[in-house]
Amino acid sequence: MPQSIVVMGVSGAGKSSVGQALATQLEAHFIDGDTLHPEANVRKMASGVPLTDEDRWPWLHLVGAKLSTGSRTGTVVACSALKRSYRDAIRTAAPDTTFILLRADKPALQERLTQRPGHFMPASLLTSQLETLEELQDDESGVMIESTGGIDATVERIRKLLVLAAAN
Predict the structure, then answer these.
(1) Which position among 85, 89, 93, 113 has the lowest Cβ density within 10 Å, counted as fewest Cβ atoms?
(2) Per-domain residue ranges for the chain?
(3) Which CATH architecture best describes the domain 4-167?
(4) Is the pLDDT of residue 66 over 90?
C-alpha cells in the first residue's frame, strides 16, 4: 500500500536530505515542501521575517493536497509542520499521513545551516522555529528520531521505526 509520509522538523534538521533518501529507498515520489511555498513566503523568509500562520495555511493545504493525490508508489514530503494545527491541516486532506519528526540539538542545527549555501532560509530564524515546534503527540501517527549519524543511518532508523509502528 502506498504511504504518505511527511519528514518534518526545524530548518537544518535534515528534512530534504533524509526525505529524498527515504523516498529513494521506498521507491516513492519525493516533494520538497519548500518548492510549494508561494514566492511571497520565500521572499519573507529570505529577508529574515518568520512566516505567520496566515502565510502558512495555503502552503499547508497544498502539501496536504499533494499527499492526498499521491503516487502509486507513495509520497514523501519534506515539510516543517512545526505545530499540531499545521499537521492537522495536512491530515484534513491526507488523513493517513505518517509524520517523521527529525530532531537535533541547536548547535548541530546551527552548524548545518551555516554549511548550506544558497538556501533562502537564514539561520537567524532557527530560534523562532525551535520556539514554535510542538513535538508529535501520542495520538498522532508518526515517530520522533534524532537526525544524527548521517543520512543513511537516519533513514535506516526511520525504516525500522516505520515497520514497528505498522506492526502495532
Answers:
(1) 85
(2) 4-167
(3) 3-Layer(aba) Sandwich (3.40)
(4) yes
